## 1
Amino acid sequence: MIFHLSLIVVLSLFVSQCYSACAEVDSMTEAVAGEGFLLGCISCKRREEVAARATVDWHFKSLGEEEFRHIFHYDHPSAEILHEDFSNRLEWHGTQNSDIQIGAIYIHNVTFNDTGTYQCILQRTLFLELADEHVTVEKEVELSVVAVANRELTAVIAEIMMYVLIVVLQLWLIVVLVYCYKKISAEHEAREARKALKDQAALLESKDNCDGVQLE
């Protein structure tokens, strides 16, 4: 869970800084009591060159209830918590301008009463040449709150693969270093051998010259 939550946070920050790389990532669905939790809501524009403005509303329906309660409203730059159960616990973690593509909110100090269905409604106005177009996007997140985080199989596999990759890279680096060392050492020995042969040849030539002078 920690692995996926980190992934969502990184993607959200990346998308908010670079709209051309917007990717609609689903929100996590399991929170741990007493900790914080990011409710994800991403709706990418299909045409990035079109200017737009959007507002985001979050609604909550707890287990056993039939109707949603309006808990949060964001209209850049204003964020408003609308229900006392979430007072001082909700924080905007979405796009920091009026052209919203990320409508994520962060819940501080999650409680078991936060278990239920969360509905994100993004209302976007596209400013087109002929006429403005209004688009409404709705996403729901079924959130369950647990006492202890359950490590998902994908997170465990990802962690194992990370360690395996680190070990493989270290072994590969050792092999490369040994290969380079042997290659450099062989070249050095070859240079020394060629130098020794040249010195020996020069010595023999000098000796021959000396013998010739003595004979004269």
Note: The chain has a mean pLDDT of 85.
## 2
Amino acid sequence: MSASEKNVNGSVQNGHKTARTEWKVEVSRRAKQTYNPQRSIVEFMNIKPNPKKSLIPLSIGDPTVFGNLKACPEIQDAVTKAAADHKNNGYSELIGSKAAREALASYMNRHQHSVTADDIQIVNGCSSAVEMAIVALANPGQNIISPRPGYSIFFTVTKALDIELRQYDLLPDQKWEADLKQMESLIDEKTAAIVVINPSNPCGSVFSRSHLEDVLALAEKYYVPIIADEIYEHIVFPGKKYYSMAPLSKNVPILQCGAVSKRFLAPGWRLGWVVVHDRGGVLKEVKQGLAKLSGITLCANTVIQGALPDILKNTPQSFYDDLNLQLQKVATIAYDMLSEIEGLKPVMPEGAMYMMVGIDLELYSKFNDGMAFIKALVEEESVFGLPGECFSYPNYIRIIITIPEDKMREACERIKKFCATHRSPKSSKSS
């Protein structure tokens, strides 16, 4: 054995210096500090449902769970056709196939946008779109301004990347509009982007045109781009008009994130996109950066890319209309029934798939917080909503409205029973 192959006090092996004398494999800093509050809080609660009652999960943001909401035949046929076409079995361009991007551009332009295929990057779902938008815009030490309550992926991504997340409040008494004064107070020289989630997860709110224009004016004042999470753009209840941010913007550059998952009731297909709405050419390098980042994942699901042109072309308007009517009906049932329970304050949604319900813990004093309230509710009544702590908004719970009507009625009856059992004696109605 040569001298270079000897391990002298663990310092030399095969000519390379090392201080290692035993196995010690450490987790990377990024992996160690990655934290999804939604999943982590639920796991920490260690909830066990009442075995005598079937679980009614009002927590899962997957519209397919109960089987009552299904993709329409035109959507399914498009995927079957694409799967049978052997042209969709290989890799696509890193930023997505030209056919899929052209189809999406054409579709968006019918809804008041003005983009080309070159402005679009196809990615692996909306979560990936959000992550890529953040990574393309922000460096460690900078900050992103995001809503509270808001979707937890923004917290997860920024924490993993050493980017500060600053949160502006959404106001429940004003239909969850943003606190613009607070938003402005959070902006500084290190602000890389303002996040707008519209329609909102978890609130189910849909911003008015004037409110979006106020946000745009603020972004323009401080020269801050916007990340627009608009995955629920087609899930807007009758009587409420939806406005995408990009067509309203004259000067503010926008990265718009979307996907097939919610609008077409197929979250497992994992196909999303980032659309670059540049204003004045200020996002030229960002667009190039997005393209480079796509080299990490190679490409998105090519079968669904192949199906996308037919999905966008052939899905009838009645599919969206029927879905929105059904969600609105279930939301109304929940709102009416929960409004009758003292100490609960539901906020009626205008779109998306969720409702936020306030809890007056003074009337339920045995519970220290929303997590304790939810834990007991599951253990006693087997009804599971997400505590507001998952969205940085305590004393609220988020429930889904994708559940069948009969299940929602049963869930609300169980919640009513639970609240009657645990309401404090000092309550006016129970005294």
Note: The first strand starts at residue 12 and ends at 13.
